[in-house]
Amino acid sequence: MTERSCSVTIDGIAVTVPAGASVVAAIVTAGTLRTRTSMTGQCRFALCGMGRCQECRVTVDGQPHVLACRTACRDGMQIQTGTLA
Ligand code: FES
């Protein structure tokens, strides 16, 4: 990590992103195009990018239903995708 970057973990995959990057940007960097799993079992991903659609909900440091598009990465953050939501 540098002042201009931070390291986070996406489903156990460590990635480094620019400081201030959104969680959804880190998810893309990890090569994952999934945020949550719908109640019918479909993989979902960020759609609106502005906090409206709720499709980008992930679990961050154990807290469920965090909007990945509206949350900036912090160093050491652990992000889980694919949660049933
Ligand atoms: S992408 Fe729509 S709320 Fe996050």
UniProtKB/TrEMBL annotation:
Transmembrane segments: 12-33
InterPro entries attached to this UniProt entry: 2Fe-2S-bd_N, 2Fe-2S_ferredoxin-like_sf
Pfam families the record matches: Fer2_4
Cytoplasm found in the keyword field: no
Gene3D superfamilies referenced in this protein's UniProt entry, alphabetically: 2Fe-2S iron-sulphur cluster binding domain, sarcosine oxidase, alpha subunit, N-terminal domain
Keywords: Membrane, Oxidoreductase, Transmembrane, Transmembrane helix
Highest taxon, organism lineage: Bacteria
Keyword S-adenosyl-L-methionine: no
UniProt protein name: (2Fe-2S)-binding protein
